[in-house]
Design a protein that fits this description.
Layout (H helix, E strand, L loop, with lengths): L2 H19 L4 H21 L1 H7 L6 H12 L5 H11 L6 H22 L3 H16 L2 H8 L5 H12 L5 H12 L5 H15 L3 E7 L5 H15 L3 E7 L7 E5 L2 E4 L2 H12 L1
Parallel strand pairs: 1-2
Antiparallel strand pairs: 1-3, 3-4
Helix pairs in contact: 1-5, 1-6, 2-6, 4-5, 6-11, 7-11, 9-10, 10-11
């Protein structure tokens, strides 16, 4: 995003946080706002002239807001409408970035609903695991990524896999991601998982190990990484038996390779 859009997103995000914090039914309201924002995005994606008009910074703010009221005022709840009015009152760099901002806000609204229900870490973990499962099944991921397939068909395919196995928030977030992919589905699920971690005030450490980490190993590693990075990190554990032992830790672009396979590779390089 350009700087203007980042500022617009930050300002609108504050409006979302304030609205949900002031609402005694914040969890239910957050879920509804999230779903309704995705419905708004659907309308904007299907109507280019409307998408351009609501992001037109040369038009008066009142005109943009009146347009939003006319199109969406009877379709969404007041909390969602107020958030939309706040969004279009800001100066977004272009319509595409307004659309992207509404998607991020929709995701955050759903994540905050999970937070209100004490499920935010569960949703974060479920999305991470879903990303790894999809990444490990090329045929399934290609079916979800197929841009020629109807969005409803991809949602139905995903629902068959998720039904009864994840929280409602995880299913809603995953469903919207396959309907409007930003990249490959596995990457999109992982990105939303990172957004959940950030909402908890944590960066993500992806730890790949030969076997699943025990609870004690996870706690020990979390403490060591906190001492290295000076803050708490969310631990996402991926399993790869090819590592033989040890673990590979990725935090952002930084990789710490303490696996047996990594040490053997390093040894081979020194012997060449």
């Amino acid at each position: 995003m350009h700087a203007a859009s980042r500022d617009a997103l930050d300002q609108t995000r504050e409006a979302l946080k304030s609205a949900l914090a002031a609402d005694p039914a914040g969890g239910a309201t957050g879920a509804k706002v999230g779903q309704e924002l995705f419905q708004v995005v659907d309308v904007l994606e299907d109507n280019r002239s409307l998408r351009v008009a609501v992001a037109d910074t040369s038009a008066p703010v009142e005109a943009r807001q009146d347009l939003v009221r006319g199109v969406f005022g009877w379709k969404v709840d007041q909390t969602t409408l107020d958030l939309l009015l706040a969004a279009v009152s800001r100066d977004w760099s272009n319509p595409r970035e307004l659309r992207a901002g509404l998607i991020l806000l929709g995701r955050e609204a759903l994540l905050r609903s999970a937070e209100q229900q004490g499920q935010l870490q569960t949703v974060e973990d479920e999305l991470f695991r879903l990303g790894r499962i999809v990444a490990g099944d090329a045929e399934f991921e290609q079916a979800l990524a197929d841009k020629t397939a109807p969005a409803d068909a991809k949602r139905a395919l995903l629902a068959q896999v998720l039904y009864g196995k994840v929280t409602a928030v995880t299913e809603a977030l995953a469903s919207q991601a396959v309907a409007r992919p930003a990249g490959m589905p596995a990457d999109d699920f992982m990105e939303i998982s990172r957004q959940a971690a950030e909402l908890r005030g944590r960066a993500v450490a992806v730890v790949t190990s030969a076997e699943p980490l025990t609870e004690q190993q996870t706690d020990d590693l979390r403490g060591r990484l906190a001492s290295i990075y000076g803050r708490e990190l969310a631990i996402h554990n991926d399993v790869d038996p090819a590592l033989l032992g040890g673990a590979v830790v990725r935090v952002g672009d930084e990789i710490i390779d303490g696996s047996v396979a990594g040490r053997l590779d390093a040894l081979r390089r020194t012997l060449r």
